[in-house]
Design brief:
The structure holds two protein chains of two kinds. Chain A is α+β, with helices and mostly antiparallel strands. Chain A is built from 41 helices and 29 strands. Chain A is extended. In chain A, 32% of the residues are buried. By secondary structure, chain B is of the alpha+beta class. The chains are: A alpha+beta, B alpha+beta. Strand 19 of chain A pairs parallel with strand 4 (84-86) of chain B, so a sheet runs across the interface.
């Protein structure tokens, strides 16, 4: 059984031995059970002398001593076990019940809650007396509880039956020594709780609210799990299926969501479908694959769940519901919710809801054990609400800390106190529920002379008065929806729509009792009787010659139903589930791991009559079609050098355990598991030439190709290292390179990269990137420490591979002339004109255009007409004579609007200046190499040159000119840049 | 079909992977077995299976490139040779 099933069953099994509403002991009790004397003195300091005297008298101490002595005596006697035992024995019955309730609620209970429980049972006078008895016997004392712990400070001295605090609620506390000695026999405990038993419904026979019931729930669970088996459903970030999937899930449900499901933005906005989904998640029938965020049906859990008896299925789902994230509270139709933070709202969260559900299930189980719940008998619903209130007011929403810790702590700092003038919608003060109002408690028409707004939804709900409107409505919602959907309980409403009565179904009682229901027992008997007449009569299948399959009583044969579901298409689902076999459905089943004989065998074993031969024949044929090609993924293959060796191996008794199939004289398919091949499996007398093997096989892993198994001998020659020529490695290399040499004895090879091989690879769909990835995998890792990239492939090899593998397309060439402009906008404006567009070949930069040779003359003539003559140098004119075209002169940079003469003039001046400098400082230029070759200058030399020009009266314009030239000639500055070593980049 | 025209690997066909060597365990291989040699030949000539053959070990069995498995299954299925996949 899956672990989660055990856990879910276990939490319900615990109720068998617990009282309803039994809470775990408060964590504060441990400290309260061993307080030192100085702390106890502090505790007693909070009580009046009269109270202390009564305590001393009850404990048999001298009550007439001074206060300080009394406190000291009581502190010494407080944990005295004989004294505690004596006090417990003397305790009157009502006080015993009071102490029982303190223990039931965890040993630390709010005084007001305790008093409510006690007053409803025994009246006010008896409650005060019980309170005084517990206090005087030092079996319970007062305290207040805060986030930081338990506090014993009170503004006034406490009496036995009266206590006041600084504002926080007063609690009754006891300690473990009292609780350990306080023994109740089961009859007494039951008697205490029986006062809260529900009473039969007195009104006319009510009509239950219609509900789909457990059968529909099971059918829908089958449908949903099938959807997850057959589809790949990706999880959203929230961990839920997306809108498209839950809409499709809804289509497959027997009971569809009411209204338009498309309006729901998330799955938790829909009702029953979300409920089913949370059950599937809690029972782990559907789980989330963490690796790829896809949901998958859990085959083990599904098989286990659908083979459980109905009452166990219902019990398991009941346990799953108590832990699920489905929140009924938000679905209460009479409540109107306001947006408040988690800390401000009384809205119960998942933890509180789970606690409340467990409380309710435990209470119902207690009622069942008391014999109150009879099948078919309606019980009074308001009485149930009242009983729950008396047993545990805080079972769903904490009434004790309604000025909850958050607001209490930050009251002054953040002004969380209720402001009647500028109120926060949904928050009405500490004594009210916050976050919602109820339509059952309408807002007053006017308040303090002011008219209430028309849209006021309801009046604030008071914690001390409106339990029935909040917790009562939650109970009604639980009975009307989850428990009813689970087929556990039913709710009946009166004419006004208010919940009036409830009852548990036969299945519900069986699930709580954890034993088969009456219906199940009857069916079992009927089944046995039928089997006695003829075993085939109990078979649930009816396979017809027209390929229809009928599954009788499908919900009682869920395991079989799910098996048929794997290879047949469901056409209807009701009292009989109808399926249809087709080629596609059979192929689908085969793809999911079934085999033809398995399907035929299942049909034969479960059919009431022999299966028609045409059905068997067709299934066999379809299966054979798929069996034509069988693909074994991730398997191991043993190859022996000789057939005789394998023959001897196959004869060994252990071989059958590991061998899947023999595939040839020297090949056998073996299981991919540890130990399938070991030294002992290979006969040691095998005549291996590889001397160091000693009968051991060599492993060739096709998934892991080691680094360094291949290396470049020359730019186009690859060498496979000796003994590493794995057939898969050779295959990968053979895809894009030609084999040049191969030594089968040494298992080494050389491959040459050629154009022909590259084209062959390209035809097979191989790309440059794939080849490169492969080469990076098998080439040696760099020897230098800290370098993570493999040794670079030479640029020539890379370029060739790119060319051969189609990474680069073929180049196109054409003769062209270059036209350069000072401003890039000028050229763009020119070639935007339609008449010049035909001449433009392309762009070499923002201000460099490539112009067709043939169109240049017409272009330059036309540009001259437009006032933009194209100039070229004399040297280029010589080239015109050679090829008939006119080269353009590079237009030098200059100031905008500068005339042609001024540019030439400035060039001449700069040239003269340079010559003058060369005369003055010949060593500088000598240092920089040949005159005019600035590429060899370093930055310091350039700066020295500029200083020199300035010192010799060079104008600022000339300096600027020089800088511009340097900018133009990037190579000058290149070597002066700080270059970062880049990783190898292809 | 001559597989050498699609791949220059020396191990595409032949009797032994390592002549005179010890027994070999080819680990993590993907293997395609056909019902008859004719079906395998047909599939080789009609589908891109010919590009993915690592080694033909018998007339009906070939080792195929596991890295191209998905595209291979798609191509085979498209041409009517849907394989049953055993994992």
């Amino acid at each position: 059984m899956p672990k989660i099933f055990e856990l879910l069953f276990d939490q319900l099994d615990k109720f068998q031995a617990a009282s309803p509403g039994q809470r775990p002991l408060s964590p504060h009790l441990e400290a309260l059970g061993k307080m030192p004397p100085y702390l106890l003195k502090r505790v007693f300091d909070g009580y009046s002398v009269q109270a202390l005297q009564a305590m001393a008298a009850a404990r048999g101490l001298d009550a007439q001593r001074k206060r300080a002595n009394l406190e000291q005596d009581l502190a010494k006697n407080f944990y005295d076990l004989p004294a505690i035992k004596r006090m417990l024995e003397k305790l009157p019955p009502v006080a015993r019940e009071g102490l029982f309730h303190v223990r039931r609620m965890g040993g630390l209970i709010r005084l007001e809650t305790w008093r409510t429980t006690m007053v409803n049972r025994h009246g006010s006078e008896a409650t005060f007396q019980a309170q005084a008895d517990l206090l005087s016997g030092l079996l319970a004392l007062y305290c207040s509880v805060h986030t930081y712990g338990v506090e014993f400070s009170f503004p006034y001295k406490n009496e036995l039956i009266s206590v006041e605090s600084f504002g926080s609620p007063v609690y009754l506390w006891t300690h473990p020594k009292v609780l350990n000695l306080f023994k109740l026999d089961p009859a007494e405990e039951t008697a205490f709780l029986q006062q809260d038993l529900p009473v039969p419904f007195n009104g006319p026979e009510p009509a239950p609210t219609p509900s789909p019931g457990f059968d529909s729930l099971l059918a829908d669970l089958v449908s949903i799990t099938r959807y997850f088996e057959q589809n790949k459903v990706k999880a959203l970030v929230s961990g839920e299926p997306g809108k498209r999937d839950y809409q499709k899930l809804n289509e497959g449900l027997r009971v569809k969501e009411p209204g338009d499901i498309k309006t729901a933005k998330k799955i938790d906005e829909v009702g029953r479908l979300y409920f089913l989904w949370t059950l599937l998640k809690e029972t782990q029938l559907v789980t989330l694959k963490p690796l790829n965020d896809f949901f998958q049906a859990n085959p083990t859990a599904n098989e286990e769940f659908f083979s459980l008896p109905r009452y166990r299925q219902a019990r398991l789902l009941l346990g799953a519901w108590t832990r699920s994230g489905f929140n009924e509270f938000k679905r209460i139709p009479t409540l109107h919710f306001y947006r408040l933070s988690f800390y401000e709202s009384s809205l119960p969260d998942a933890t509180k809801t789970t606690r409340a559900r467990l409380f309710l299930v435990g209470l119902l189980d207690f009622y069942r054990k008391q014999g109150v719940l009879q099948p078919g008998e309606w019980l009074d619903f308001p009485r149930l609400v009242q009983s729950i209130r008396d047993l545990d007011t805080n079972f769903l929403i904490d009434h004790d800390s309604s000025p909850n810790h958050f607001r209490q702590s930050f009251r002054y700092e953040y002004e969380y106190e209720y402001d009647p003038l500028f109120s926060v919608e949904g928050f009405y003060g500490d004594e009210f529920y916050s976050g919602f109002t109820s339509s059952l408690k309408p807002a007053l028409k006017s308040k303090g002379g002011l008219r209430q707004p028309e849209n006021a939804f309801g009046a604030p709900l008071k914690l001390s008065e409106d339990f029935a409107l909040v917790e009562g409505e939650w109970l009604a919602q639980v009975f009307a929806e989850p428990l009813s959907w689970l087929g556990i309980a039913e709710l009946a409403r009166d004419a006004s729509g208010r919940p009036a009565a409830f009852r548990l179904t036969d299945l519900g009682l069986a699930a709580l009792a954890d034993r088969p229901s009456e219906r199940e027992r009857q069916q079992s008997e009927l089944h046995q009787q039928l089997a006695a007449h003829g075993p085939a009569l109990t078979n649930a299948l009816l396979v017809q010659p027209n390929f229809d399959i009928m599954v009788m009583a499908p919900l009682e044969n869920l395991t079989l139903l799910r098996q048929v579901d794997r290879f047949a298409d469901q056409t209807s689902m009701g009292e009989v589930a109808l399926y249809r076999i087709s080629k596609d459905s059979i192929l689908g089943g085969l793809r999911n791991g079934l085999s033809g004989p398995e399907i035929i065998s299942l049909l034969r074993e479960n059919n009431r009559v022999p299966v028609a031969s045409n059905v068997v024949q067709s299934i066999g044929d379809w299966a054979a079609e798929l069996e034509r090609l069988v693909l074994y993924e991730n398997c191991d293959l043993l190859e022996t050098p000789e057939a005789a060796t394998l023959d001897r191996l196959m004869r060994q008794p252990e071989a059958a355990r590991f061998v899947i199939k023999r595939l040839g004289p020297t090949y056998v398919l073996i299981r991919n598991e540890k130990g399938s091949v070991k030294a002992g499996n290979v006969p040691s007398d095998t005549p291996y030439t590889a001397e160091n093997m000693h009968g051991l096989p060599v492993y060739l892993d096709y998934r892991t190709l080691p680094h360094g198994s291949v290396s470049f001998v020359s730019p186009f020659l690859l060498k496979v290292k000796q003994n590493t020529a794995n057939p898969y490695l050779l295959y990968r290399l053979g895809q894009f390179a030609d084999l040049e040499s191969f030594s089968q004895n040494r298992l080494e090879a050389t491959f040459r990269l050629t154009a022909k091989a590259g084209q062959r690879a390209q035809l097979q769909g191989l790309t440059f990137e794939r080849v490169l990835t492969f080469l990076e995998m098998v080439l040696p890792l760099p020897t230098r420490r800290g370098k993570s990239t493999p040794d670079p492939i030479s640029d020539e090899t890379l370029l060739a591979l790119k060319g051969w593998l189609g990474y680069y397309s073929p180049l196109q060439a054409e003769r062209a002339l270059v036209i350069q402009a000072t401003q890039s906008g000028q050229l763009r404006e020119i070639f935007r004109q339609e008449e010049f567009q035909a001449a433009l070949l392309g762009w070499a930069g923002p201000n460099i255009a490539l112009v067709r040779n043939s169109a240049f003359d017409r272009l330059s003539a036309r540009l001259a007409e437009l006032g933009m003559p194209v100039n070229w140098s004399d040297e280029r004119l010589d080239e015109i004579a050679l090829d008939g075209t006119a080269p353009t002169e590079k237009v030098r940079r200059g100031k905008r609007g500068a005339t042609e003469e001024s540019v030439a003039e400035r060039e001449r001046k700069a040239r003269e200046k340079n010559e003058a400098e060369a005369r003055i400082q010949p060593d500088l230029l000598a240092k920089s190499g040949e005159p005019g070759r600035l590429t060899t200058l370093d930055l310091n030399t350039i700066l020295s040159l500029m200083d020199l020009i300035t010192a010799h009266g060079g104008s600022s314009e000339e300096l600027e000119r020089l800088l511009e030239d340097l900018e133009d000639n990037q190579e000058v500055l290149f070597r002066n840049r700080v270059s970062r070593k880049k990783p190898w980049n292809y | 079909m001559d597989l050498k025209q699609f791949n220059s690997s020396p191990n595409l066909e032949g009797k032994a992977t390592w002549a005179g060597g010890p027994a070999l365990v080819h680990q993590n291989v993907t293997l395609l077995e056909c019902a008859s040699p004719a079906i395998l030949d047909e599939a080789l000539s009609a589908t891109p299976l010919k590009f993915a053959v690592v080694r033909r070990i018998s007339p009906t069995v070939v080792l195929v490139d596991h890295a191209r498995l998905d595209e291979l299954v798609k191509a085979l299925t498209k041409k009517g040779y849907e394989p049953r996949i055993v994992r």
